TrEMBL record:
Signal peptide: none annotated. InterPro entries: ACP-like_sf (IPR036736), PP-bd_ACP (IPR009081). Gene3D superfamilies: ACP-like (1.10.1200.10). The lineage of its organism: Bacteria, Bacillati, Bacillota, Clostridia, Eubacteriales. Residues 1-73 form the Carrier domain. SUPFAM superfamilies: ACP-like. This is Acyl carrier protein.
């Protein structure tokens, strides 16, 4: 989770990613941020996020995003 928080803070250093649960709903993350996140997650965690998983629920919080990463790691 620490690595993910660091990636997110690289995008928006002023956001409390550990407690915010409305990253998409409140438009904190935009489409460019999502693309950057997907690329960084692939690089750091060596997992590819399938297109069907790129939905607001998966990106609304760091916790939800990390759960997705864990699921993808388990499937590998």
């Amino acid at each position: 989770m620490k690595e993910l928080i660091e990636i997110l803070k690289g995008l928006h250093p002023d956001v409390d990613f550990e407690n915010t649960t409305t990253l998409i709903d409140d438009q904190i993350l935009d489409s460019f941020d999502i693309i950057t996140l997907i690329t960084e997650i692939d690089s750091v965690f060596d997992v590819q996020i399938p297109a069907e998983e790129i939905v607001p629920e998966r990106f609304n919080s760091a916790k939800a995003l990390y759960e997705l990463i864990e699921e993808l790691l388990e499937d590998n």
